[in-house]
Amino acid sequence: QGQEKLRCNPKKENGTHVVLCELGNPMKAGAQITVDMELSVSGLEDMGDAITFQLQLRSKNSPSPTNASVTVTVPVEAQAEMELRGNSLPDTMVLPTSWQEVEGSRRLEDHGIKVEHVYELHNKGPSTVSGVTLRLAVPHQLGGHILLYLLELGTEGGMNCTHHPDLNPAQV
Hints:
Blueprint: E1 8-13, E2 16-21, E3 50-56, E4 69-75, E5 80-89, E6 116-126, E7 141-142, E8 145-146
Domain Integrin alpha second immunoglobulin-like: 3-76
Membrane topology: Single-pass type I membrane protein
InterPro entries: Integrin_alpha_Ig-like_2, Integrin_alpha_Ig-like_3, Integrin_dom_sf
């Protein structure tokens, strides 16, 4: 007839989280009730692609054959918006036309002007993320000549990094 808010009580039974909701007492024979439930469940990042609930309607009437249960599977979809930000320091660089690379030198200045590229990967949420892979391709040769001499690669924030084997080939 009308809409009422249910009073539900969470508790633990045999190591399982249970939510008990009282629908009404007494109910008339043949009564039909529709219940909409909204559940907030945390920690679903490692649950896979679905979560399963066991729903059971219990009657306190002595022996009731309608204590049937039903399994409901709800798909889980984590959502997170990732953002990649990058800077080059200096942001503009012009090599002098008279500059020449000094072959065999181990001094950094003899291989060009230092340019640092910094990339930041940000999770804008709402979910947390794990197992993210960022592949960054840097053109280091052009027409068989060195365009950028890749000196080092570093990370911050507990990330793992693998790099191309051409990183610092002259051991500058």
